[in-house]
Amino acid sequence: MENLIKKNHADKQMGLGILIIVIGSVFLLRNTGIDIPHWVLSWHTIMLGAGLWIGYRKNFQGSGWLALTIIGAIFTLRDITILDFELSKITTALVLIGLGLWVILKPSKFKNFSNNFQNTSNVHEIKN
Questions:
Q1: Which helix (H) or strand (E) holds 18?
Q2: 54 and which of 29, 40, 44, 65 could share a cystine (Cβ 3.0–4.6 Å)?
């Protein structure tokens, strides 16, 4: 148990360290004159990253991380422009496709009722 706690703490430290390095690298690149898009360090990109981070830490169970990720992704996609094409024109379609994939691929939480009656080898019939 103690080894698991130490490993979990080490994973948190590693993730936090990588996050700080990435943010510092973006600031360094921006301050040296390299053009970094404004959306890289915006509130919605941070929200997107936080949602993915929380989802990773909770093995993508629950839906709190999903709300953060979807809101951050929608606003981030609105700001990204690739080759003079605004992704905001297809954001709604991408969100609907992602939602559909999530509904299809999420694990089912219900148990099939008929599986409870398959093993009837130990049941004895009562004869009158």
A1: helix 2-31
A2: 65
CA atoms of 72 and 43, how far apart (whole Å)? 8
**What's the rounded Cα separation, in Å, for the pair 73 and 67?**
10
Could you tell me the two tokens for 105? 């691929």
User: pLDDT at residue 77 above 70?
Assistant: yes
Answer yes or no: is pLDDT of 1 > 60.
no
DSSP 53-118: HHHHHTTT-SSHHHHHHHHHHHHHHHH-EETTEEGGGSHHHHHHHHHHHHHHHSPP----GGGGGS
Cβ neighbours for 70, distance < 8 A, ≥ 6 positions apart: 51, 95, 98
Residues above pLDDT 90, as percent of the chain: 0
User: Whole-prediction pTM value?
Assistant: 0.52
Which residue has tokens 């404004």? 38
pLDDT tens by residue, 28-55? 888 888 887 777 878 888 888 888 888 8
Token representation of residue 90: 């297809």
